[in-house]
Amino acid sequence: MIRIAVMGASGRMGKMLIEAVQATDDCTLHVTLDKGDDVRAGLAGADVMIDFTRPEATLAHLAVCADLGVKAVIGTTGFDDAQKAEIARFAERTAIVFAPNMSVGVNVVLKLLDMAARALAEGYDIEIVEAHHRMKVDAPSGTALQMGQVVADAVGRDLKSCAVYGREGVTGARDPSTIGFATVRGGDIIGDHTVLFAGIGERIEVSHKATNRTIYAQGSLRCARYLASFTKGNGLFGMNDVLGFNT
Ligand SMILES: NC(=O)C1=CN([C@@H]2O[C@H](COP(=O)(O)OP(=O)(O)OC[C@H]3O[C@@H](n4cnc5c(N)ncnc54)[C@H](OP(=O)(O)O)[C@@H]3O)[C@@H](O)[C@H]2O)C=CC1
Ligand SMILES: O=C(O)C1=N[C@H](C(=O)O)C[C@H](O)C1
Fold it and tell me: Which tens digit of pLDDT belongs to each residue from 21-53?
């Protein structure tokens, strides 16, 4: 049995994860932890921590995982570059899967985007539109940013210098080298992402729409199983590794 620790247990994803673990026959809930609980005591003896919380909390939890040798699945989004570098440092001491979207579908879409962007590198304007529920605190979504990164890499652009995060006022004509991001927040939208390649005479839209958070919980359990069967002590992995897309 894989002993799972669920962090942010009373959050939207925390609740889904608890249900998902309870429905398996190869994982068991070692502990469920909320803000204010004793993280070190709770994580002791766990095989894998699954964390969908906030960047600062995740980093504090990872520090304990690294000390105790607990492996970690990180679904939290909204990390800045320095915080991502901290995750990489923790991965020198324990094994971590870090992915802004655990759904199989989104990770297949990332592959499709790489192919589409290579074919449409010239003459097509690239815009990424994402929509989420009213409670989401970070923007653009981690998934939208990862989609932007995949597309930018495929067309040979530096995302940091070509990304445009929203437009207002007299913006002038569109610079063809940019990759635009637009964010929608409202109601209970679980997570919609579209990458638009807009050319003259046609446009291509690659979309993913989530209709249930179970996709993220099931993906997280795949990550936990991947880590549990991983015999080396440390390393930083993504969904590509878990889904075997790198082999
Ligand atoms: N990778 C993926 O596939 C997915 C990623 N996500 C990401 O997961 C994260 C959580 O999303 P969601 O479940 O909707 O958010 P919620 O706000 O519903 O849940 C977050 C949980 O984390 C807890 N938390 C916040 N701060 C701390 C802290 N300092 N210490 C301990 N616990 C803390 C919250 O507690 P409290 O309410 O008491 O503050 C809450 O229980 C987000 O970053 C989201 O983008 C979401 C879905 C899929
Ligand atoms: O906050 C959410 O809900 C989600 N967050 C992730 C992100 O930022 O990409 C994944 C998914 O879209 C749901």
Answer: 999 999 999 999 999 999 999 999 999 999 999
Query: How many CA atoms lie less than 13 Å away from 188 in the CB half-sphere?
Result: 4
159-174 confidence digits (pLDDT tens): 999 999 999 999 999 9
CATH superfamily, with its number, for domain 104-210:
Dihydrodipicolinate Reductase; domain 2 (3.30.360.10)
Every domain of the chain and the residues it spans: 2-102+213-242, 104-210
220 Cβ inside 6 Å of ligand 2: no
How far is the C-alpha of 231 from the C-alpha of 59, rounded, in Å? 23
103 lines ligand 2 (CB under 6 A): no
Closest atom, ligand 1, to C-alpha of 101: 3
Tell me the residue type at 94.
T
195, 212 Cβ separation under 8 angstroms: no
Asked if residue 55 has a cis previous peptide bond (ω within 30° of 0), the answer is no
- Provide the CATH number for the domain formed by 2-102+213-242 in this structure: 3.40.50.720
Q: Which of 20, 53, 112, 71 is nearest to 242 (CA)?
A: 71
Read off the amino acid at residue 111.
K
For residue 133, the ligand 2 atom closest to its alpha carbon is 3
174-197 burial code (b ≥16 CB/10 A, e <16): eeeebbbbbbeeeeebebbbbbbb
Q: How far away, in angstroms, is 57 Cα from ligand 1 center?
A: 9
